[in-house]
C-alpha cells in the first residue's frame, strides 16, 4: 500500500512537524510511507502532478488555516484522477466539525481528529486489511454514511512518540519545528489550546539528546512550538542553559509569556550569546475589556519591564504580537495597544 503524508506549508523554509511525527509512528508497519511537502505558493497543477506520479493508494494531508482551501481543491481533483485513492485529512483545521466538512467535500474519506500518532497507524492498518472497523479519534465515510467514532484519549506518555527527524535533509536551509511539551496552562478563548486542559512534557533527557542531534546535523533555526515555553520557569531555564552551551550557529525561537519572567530569569537571559535566542511574545491586546472577554491574563507593568530589560541587553531578538478583531476591540483601542507595544522599542 503506497502511503503519502502531505502538507502545504506557508513557505519553502517551513517544515511539517506533524508529517514527520506521523511518518515515524507508521514506519514500523508501513516502511514505505513517504512525506511530500509543498507550499501554498506553488502551482496547484504542479502539486497534483507530483503526487499523481507517485500513484498513492492513501493520501493524508495535514490541514491548517493557511492551507485548507487549497488542500481541499487538490484532494477533490486528485480523487477524479485516482477514483480509488483514499483521502485522509488531519490537523487543527479539520478536527472540530469533521462531519460537516465531509458532507460538503465528498472526496474526503476519513478525518483523523486531534493527536494522530496512535489513530493514523491504526486507521492504516484497518485500510490495509480491506476493513472498515471502528478507529477511535476518526470520522469515516462508509458508503453514503459518515460515522463519527468516539474520541481517542490524549497521549499521556509523550516519550512513546518516536523522534520525528531521524533522516531529514537540508536542515540548514529550513525552519525545523520542535516541541518539548503539549498543552497550555492558560485558557484564552480564541485559541484551540484552550480545549485541552493542562500541560504534558517530553522527558528532559530526551529533549536534550534530540536537540544535540539536530544542532550537530546543522539545523539553522529550531522553532519551539510549545504554546508557552516558559510555563515551567525552572524547566525553561534548564533547557536554555543547555542550549547556550551547545556549539554551532543554530538559532532557537521560543513563544514565551514575558510577564512570567522573574528578575533572576532576566539576569540569566542577559548572559545569552548574541543571536542565539529569539522570543515571540503574544500581547494580543492591552484593552482590559477585551482581555476579560477572551479570558486572557496580562500584567502589563511586568511585561513592559521584561521586554525593556531584554531589549537593553540587545542579545535576544523580540517579536511582539497583537490580534486585530478581538471582542470589545475597536479601531481606537487597537491603536492604543499598538502604540503601547511600539513604545517598548
Helix share, percent: 25-40%
Mean pLDDT: 95
Reading off the top of the CATH hierarchy, the class of the largest domain is best stated as Alpha Beta
Shape: globular
For the largest sheet, list the strands in their spatial order: 2-1-3-4-5-6-7
Let me know the number of strands: 14
What is the strand content?
15-25%
CATH superfamily of the largest domain: tm_1862 like domain
List the helices and strands in order: EHEHEHEHEHEEEEEHEHEHEHHEH
Q: C-alpha Rg, in Å?
A: 22 Å
Helix/strand class: alpha/beta
| Low-confidence blocks of residues | none
Description:
- With 345 residues, this protein is of the alpha/beta class.
- It folds into two domains: 3-148, Rossmann fold, CATH 3.40.50.2300; 166-342, pyruvate-formate lyase- activating enzyme (Alpha-Beta Horseshoe), CATH 3.80.30.
- It has eleven helices and 14 strands.
- The chain has helices at 17-26, 44-54, 68-81, 98-104, 119-128, 204-216, 233-244, 263-269, 288-293, 300-313, 331-342, and strands at residues 3-9, 34-39, 58-62, 86-90, 110-112, 138-142, 145-148, 175-178, 181-183, 199-201, 221-224, 251-256, 277-284, 317-322.
- A seven-stranded mixed beta sheet has the order 2-1-3-4-5-6-7, with helices on both faces. Strands 8-11-12-13-14 form a five-stranded parallel beta sheet, covered by helices on one side.
- Helix 8 (263-269) links the parallel strand 12 and strand 13.
- The radius of gyration is 22 Å and the shape is globular.
- The protein starts with a strand and ends with a helix.
- The mean pLDDT is 95.
